[in-house]
């Protein structure tokens, strides 16, 4: 069964980002339940700042699942990436992600590696950066698998990384690095920039996809840009995708309306 999720960010430093609800975790969960979402995707400053027992209580109270946890705070707050030329920083980045993997695993939820993959920096070859990334994904994926969950790797658009931008290249990276326990995230916003045919790319890589970010071509809620969702929804249903489709989109015109637009679009394309 394909399930819906909405993003809740608890990191003030990323408040201008594509997250639907902000700051108040319980209020965001209450709104998510009232609108009919199945789960939440959570962005927290660190695993230590969120009590596992408290989150369990809230998820049960509002009949929600934890769809995934983001790791972007590792880069935003601490400047950590898996491809930094400094080995001590790469090690700190892995340690931060390991903490998020363990946190998510307490709920059966995967962690997402997006911005923490980093860049091939000047003076550092792209091939070396990719090797560091492959090594980290293999190690972190093994940890996730040992905790009965999986890790999610997200190809980003060319303006956010110069490493991996397309799903097919992401799949090749995981294969080359023998990264078991790792699945791809298909972010429709990034794909609108990088893919010539979103539905075809999803079809070609369907067996590798473990999470979907549901945002239109302008990174606002689906229905506010020019993304053609019909063929994408058709491919996902035909492929047997059974993960979460999560609204990582700008909260425009406001969080409540953005969430409402999202669940209406999700219902239209995946429930009706």
UniProtKB/TrEMBL annotation:
<dbReference type="InterPro" id="IPR013022">
    <property type="entry name" value="Xyl_isomerase-like_TIM-brl"/>
</dbReference>
<protein>
    <submittedName>
        <fullName>Sugar phosphate isomerase/epimerase family protein</fullName>
    </submittedName>
</protein>
<dbReference type="InterPro" id="IPR050417">
    <property type="entry name" value="Sugar_Epim/Isomerase"/>
</dbReference>
<dbReference type="GO" id="GO:0016853">
    <property type="term" value="F:isomerase activity"/>
</dbReference>
<keyword id="KW-0413">Isomerase</keyword>
<feature type="domain" description="Xylose isomerase-like TIM barrel">
    <location>
        <begin position="30"/>
        <end position="265"/>
    </location>
</feature>
<dbReference type="Pfam" id="PF01261">
    <property type="entry name" value="AP_endonuc_2"/>
</dbReference>
<dbReference type="InterPro" id="IPR036237">
    <property type="entry name" value="Xyl_isomerase-like_sf"/>
</dbReference>
